[in-house]
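Bench notes, afternoon.
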Amino acid sequence: MKVAHAPAQLERQPRAVAIGTFDGVHRGHRSVVQAAVDSGLAPTVITFDVHPRIALGNQVELISTLERRLELLAEAGAEATLVAAFTHELMALEPETFAERYLRGIGAEAVAAGSDFRFGARRQGDLELLDRLGFEILEVTDVPGVSSSAIRRLVHRGDVEGAADLLGRPYELDGMVVAGDQRGGTLGYPTANLALDPQLLCPLYGIYAGAAIGHRAAVSIGTNPHYGGTERRIEPYLLDFHDDLYGTRLVVELWTRLRDEAAFATEEDLIAQIGRDVEATRAAVRPG
């Protein structure tokens, strides 16, 4: 998939454009992209960075990084994605100017978006305006009950299986592996220490079963209360994996929540519980 950051970076050709923020690229978002794919025109996405609500001063816990969003849009069938910088200048554009520059400028003939999509100065632009400007408005199959807000609520409760149902795939943690306490190795279960961008959504603390890079993973999210920790740590233990991950990007799927984090009477009790968590992880079923 070609990724552009300005309309001039995309060849002008007949395109069907799916437009929106697409945080998480959930089932509803993929329905919008599918409408563009089904049109027969070059399926193209216009998405925004930063998230418009963040640009307006609101706090938003992002479901996916921009890098992962682009990967998922490519998997959904987009041949090109224009990442529009959501700046004050962009917000101030009259809707007609936005349409001319970002849509007509890349050859868009048809547009797909959610029914609540708004754009341009004072959010005056909508699909009805684009229709009046001569763009074909593609029909998007509605996916009831699916929204980024609903996914965030489920993840906050630790219901990653419910989130997977809305996403159409497991909920993921996406970050870099950095140096940690290296305590897991002394217990016989060496973990990676995943650094998550502060703007990304983090689930309810606890122990989860999931997977990463083709290996099942038992994932501890929390403060390590057994050792009196206070800082949040995300520590996946990849089953049957023995390589070094330091300095690499790691995308970790969360399949199910196994239990709350806890302090134990002895380290032996902790090790025994980790063993049970690992066995539960081997038996876990991937949702989505």
